[in-house]
Amino acid sequence: MIYELKKSEYHLLKPMLLSGFQFPEVYAVVNLVNSGWIVADDPVNPTSAFVWVEGLKGFFLIGCENNISFLEDLNHFIDHELNERLQRDVNWVEVAGMHQGWDDVIKQSYHCRNVKQSIQLIYKWDDHQAVEKQDKDLAPLSSEYQVIRVNPELLSSAQIKNLDFLEAELAGFWGNIDHFMNHGIAYCVLRGNVIASICYSGFVAGNIHTIGIVTTQEHRKKGLAYQAAYSYIKELREMKLIPYWDCSLSNESSWRLAEKLGFVKDVEYHLYSFQK
Length: 276
Description:
The chain has helices at about 25-30, 70-80, 80-85, 100-110, 125-135, 150-155, 165-175, 175-185, 225-240, 250-260, and strands at about 5, 35-40, 50-55, 60-65, 90-95, 115-125, 145-150, 185-190, 195-205, 210-215, 240-250, 265-275.
């Protein structure tokens, strides 16, 4: 059977997280920092689990990949219970394995579901390389823009015309703004009373902050994402926190920005999507 774990039971999964990819997104859910839910093979001694990460709108498989009964029950769960659990109709499922042993299992278990495979890139921060590179590449910001830290005053301002853009982006990862403010950091680039670009903590796992960046369509290709990220990362490092970057290989603008900021590619892993 598949059991949905209570939040008080999430700590039972921590031994599964010690090997393979150290995805901060999974740690953030297990540690009850970011939103998500978990189903597992056993509510007392779980050995395999399926983790929903709300901010990514995707899943991670963790633990033992050779748990046949769990895989069979999970197939049934995806077919018959997933829509109700997500409170919406789901046509495609995105999932990654916590370690490489899951790769073949995912392809074999869901081969009838038209599995598609893509490559994700994880970039790690390198202090020595990055600081010198950032300062070298930081271009002067046009006088029509300003970079500011997201704070309670900004969030309560009646002057910002598209505050809903910022609120929706943060709420998608954190559930609500208050929860974000208790755990995350964000910087935005303003043009007058309009938010043009934001860089924020998507997930927090210990001292690791994953980076989320978005720029509105009309303000792209002006270097604003770099400006927001530069200020954001600078504060993280001053606080002895570690920035973390994860993006798809196909998202060239994202990984090129990471490299421009001084991140170094650390590892690749596979993301799978398949029809429900």
